[in-house]
Design goal:
With 631 residues, this protein is of the alpha+beta class. The chain contains 19 helices and 35 strands. The protein starts with a strand and ends with a strand.
């Protein structure tokens, strides 16, 4: 059965709730205060089944909204997910302020279909009804409710006049409405939260995308809480699943009523991210004042409401009737996706001034030049999915865009993201991180230039470590690994352990540096275990202290010299001879103490203790009290 959501709109006391009751038999006013005061304060709900022109059954869910100007924020919480609108105008009052504001809201939210209903037709004579019809026709001309395309039907909720014709038009229009995508990623904006005896926590909302089944796990945005669906109701009846376009109630496990509120969103876990920044296309109503850069506004999207600050790309104000690229900085984190419609209202006094649609819910925080952001946002507006993906990857530069983040950025399933990544020309995958061919080529050049510059500045160093190279280039880890792998395969670089160098660009020494290296090595090799201090050896060299230290670093890296403590450095040949001495001593005894070690090696305690600790670390010996066991 096809499901369609119908929303009411119109001025206070123009008969919206009475009309819904006359059509469905359900009183959408559920609050005691509403019944006592005779006005709608919060959104209400009802449903109706009709037969379509071809005999197929249709299920219409009605969202009845308040008409009083003080409750427009509640009206906005209900109007966001509708498929068609009933613009309700009382025949005895005609067009009033909230008629205009609600109508503007519907246009800004890009509602495409609707029916204009002249209620209370029994309260006026035929001539007055005809005059009101003319006024309304002129008001609606050139809009989505233009009488040339959309009917104006006079009804009386009291007598029932016009209701059969209205139901017929509703059925006809409902058949023409495209079904919402039930295969898309799930999103349910929450509009009510309550406790039901025997069930626990219940939420309701209009399912805008996907399908929800019993036992599904969902994530609550923005809190991040995980919940399990214990039960599903569709239009008040138990169901195995709810699909996009249906009024849905969910019995949730794993969350308390106080942890949920109107404005939150249910969605698949580990798919989306909340945001406080949105890049949008914002339009101002012709009847409003200019909006200046930095202005604060009330922001409404689906059931959510928060405060936003408008920052403009381009001119520093929007004139009435104009539109512009605008970044909105939200006070509170929300889940919104590309294509989502929103309304903005003036901060004070609170009136509707404009609206638009989200282009990017994952904007970069770094500064981007105006031409680049305009080109990017234009691609998001008019580009194919392949072009949009390419643009989103390209803006990430050498960091790349993880494939797992594509569904959340583009509101598509992972299978579709993988398909686009595989088919889009000019994209590479680096361990499931996407980067453009152009950027990858640039990253390769950056790596080569960085290594070359390192060699020029450090001729006495064999190469640059991978970690330092990546830090210097700022390339993402997955992209960096593929760059190094391809450069190595093409012989563009050489790997020496964790060091990277250009071919033929190892250590290059001048004559005096080579002589100093030889002198250092000979000084320690001839000293055996009674080594001089490193500072004394370096002081006797012809090269400066900085180059001398680099030569020592090179000898330590090549393991010609071995540093066993902060002050003692030994030649590797001396330590090799010491190991042989220890092995020979083991034929006499498996244990050795400091005194016997000094006697065997001829060294003082200054050298004996560090050397024994070195042997412990090398697992040649193991300390047991005051002795060492020879392993």
């Amino acid at each position: 059965m096809k499901s369609v959501i119908v929303g009411t709109a119109g001025h206070i006391d123009h008969g919206k709730t009475a009309l819904v009751k006359a059509l469905t038999g359900i009183d959408a006013d559920r609050l005691e205060e509403e019944k006592r005061r005779g006005i709608t304060i919060d959104i209400g709900f009802a449903h109706l089944e009709l037969a379509g022109p071809d005999g197929d059954k249709l299920r219409l869910g009605f969202v009845d909204v308040p008409g009083h100007e003080r409750f427009v924020r509640n009206m906005l919480a209900g109007i966001g997910g509708i498929d068609l609108v009933l613009l309700v105008i009382a025949a005895d009052e005609s067009i009033k302020p909230q008629t205009r504001e609600h109508f503007d809201i519907c246009r800004l939210l890009a509602v495409r279909r609707g029916i204009t209903v002249l209620t209370k037709s029994d309260a006026v004579d035929r001539e007055t009804l005809d005059v009101v019809r003319l006024e309304v026709s002129e008001f609606l001309r050139a809009s989505f409710l233009d009488p040339a395309r959309s009917p104006i039907i006079a009804v009386s909720s009291r007598t029932g006049a016009g209701l059969p014709e209205l139901k017929q038009e509703l059925a006809k229009m409902a058949v023409e409405i495209p079904a919402k995508d039930s295969s898309a990623l799930v999103r349910l904006p929450i509009d009510r939260v309550f406790t039901m005896k025997g069930f626990g926590t219940v939420v309701t909302g209009t399912l805008v995308a996907g399908r929800i089944r019993k036992e599904d796990e969902l994530e609550v945005f923005p809190s991040g809480k995980r919940v399990r669906v214990r039960g599903v109701q569709v239009h008040g009846e138990a169901a195995e699943q709810a699909v996009a376009g249906q009024r849905t109630a969910l019995n949730l496990a794993g969350v308390a009523v106080e942890d949920l509120a109107r404005g939150m969103m249910l969605a698949p876990p580990e798919t989306f991210r909340g945001t406080v920044r949105l890049d949008t296309r914002l339009s101002l109503l012709p009847s409003t004042k200019p909006l200046k850069d930095g202005a604060r506004v009330h922001f409404h999207a689906y059931t959510t409401e928060t405060i936003a600050e408008a920052r403009f790309y381009g001119p520093k104000q929007i004139r009435p009737g104009d539109e512009q690229w605008v970044r909105l900085k939200l006070t509170d984190e929300r889940l919104l996706l590309p294509g989502d419609r929103f309304i903005v209202r003036q901060f004070s006094p609170v009136t509707t001034i404009g609206g638009g649609f989200v282009l990017d819910a994952s904007p970069l925080t770094r500064k981007i030049c105006q031409s680049d952001i305009a080109r990017f946002l234009t691609t998001l507006t008019t580009g194919t999915p392949e072009e949009v993906l390419h643009a989103r990857v390209e803006r990430r530069g050498v960091i790349g865009l993880p494939l797992r983040d594509v569904p959340g950025e583009m509101n598509i399933r992972m299978a579709e993201a993988s398909r686009l990544a595989a088919q889009s020309r000019g994209l590479l995958q680096c361990d499931r991180v996407l980067v453009t061919d152009h950027v990858f080529s640039g990253a390769t050049a950056i790596v080569g230039n960085t290594i070359d510059n390192f060699h020029e500045a450090n001729p006495l160093v064999q190469g640059i470590s991978k970690e330092e190279l990546r830090d210097r280039t700022g390339i993402g880890p997955e992209v960096f690994q593929r760059v190094i792998a391809e450069m190595t395969e093409r012989k563009g670089v050489e790997l020496v352990g964790e060091l990277v160098r250009l071919p033929g660009r190892g250590v290059v020494m001048k004559d005096e540096e080579a002589e100093s290296k030889k002198n250092i090595e000979q000084a320690f090799a001839s000293a055996g275990l009674q080594v001089p201090s490193l500072s004394m050896v370096l002081a006797g060299l012809k090269v400066d202290k900085t180059r001398a230290q680099k030569i020592v670093t090179l000898l330590l890296r090549d393991k010609v010299l071995v540093k066993i403590s902060d002050e003692l450095v030994f030649h590797q040949s001396a330590l090799h001879a010491l190991r042989q001495q220890i092995a020979g001593y083991k034929t006499k005894s498996t244990r050795i103490d400091v005194g016997k070690f000094k006697e065997m090696t001829g060294v003082s305690r200054k050298y004996a203790i560090p050397l024994l600790e070195y042997l412990d670390r090398e697992r040649v010996t193991k300390r047991m009290g005051d002795e060492r066991v020879i392993l």
